[in-house]
Design goal:
202 residues; alpha/beta; Glutaredoxin
């Protein structure tokens, strides 16, 4: 990846590597519907001809673990106390927590429809979590920017996507299939959440 080239800069931005040391060697695999990225430095330490050939061979033989993009959680600004900003590196600790029902809004940069839904999502979170943020403590609400992060559990190109990860079955997550409103999201949660919720004035 040559970050001095236009293509290299695009890839560096896409992979959240603008502040990292270069050079970087990666494989951008588009053979399936979901593109996968394989980062050389995740598997090898030294850039030698032998290691590069081995890197490509192991990719061809399906032996490499994909690299999933992630923002730095400590640098992300939280704009609503009742909504967790989830990144790639902490997605599993949030969404797959077996003690919580977890609702996640997946969105993307430059998505005008997402921008339209943010106020409704904030309103829903504020109401269901209460004024002090302690109501319905068994429900975690989060948002996930898929333009800057990835997770192996979900791949989507439809934004926004609302998904619920029930506490009792994290592999059988549910998607909101109708238009998102405060009321439809409330009904969706009540139907699929595995833990008891208090929902009064939504």
């Amino acid at each position: 990846m040559n970050v001095n080239s236009e293509v290299g800069q695009i890839m560096a931005n896409y992979m959240n590597m603008k502040e990292e040391k270069f050079p970087k060697l990666l494989i951008h695999d588009t053979r399936k519907i979901r593109p996968y990225h394989f980062l050389f430095s995740q598997h090898f330490q030294e850039y030698t001809e032998e290691n590069i050939v081995k890197f490509v061979n192991e990719w061809e033989n399906g032996k490499l673990t994909p690299f999933y993009r992630s923002e730095n959680a400590s640098l992300v600004k939280q704009d609503n106390k009742n909504i967790n900003y989830i990144v790639g590196n902490n997605f599993e600790s949030f969404a797959l927590d077996p003690t919580k029902d977890v609702l996640v809004m997946f969105y993307a940069d430059n998505c005008t429809q997402c921008e339209d839904y943010f106020p409704l999502f904030n309103k829903f979170a504020d109401k269901i979590k209460g004024s002090n943020g302690t109501l319905n403590e068994n429900l975690v609400i989060g948002k996930f920017n898929y333009s800057r992060n990835e997770t192996k559990q979900i791949y989507t190109e439809r934004y926004p996507t609302f998904a619920l990860f029930p506490s009792n079955n994290k592999t059988d997550f549910k998607f909101l299939l109708e238009q998102m409103t405060v009321e439809s999201l409330s009904s969706f949660i009540q139907k699929h959440a595995s833990l008891t919720l208090t929902i009064d004035d939504l």
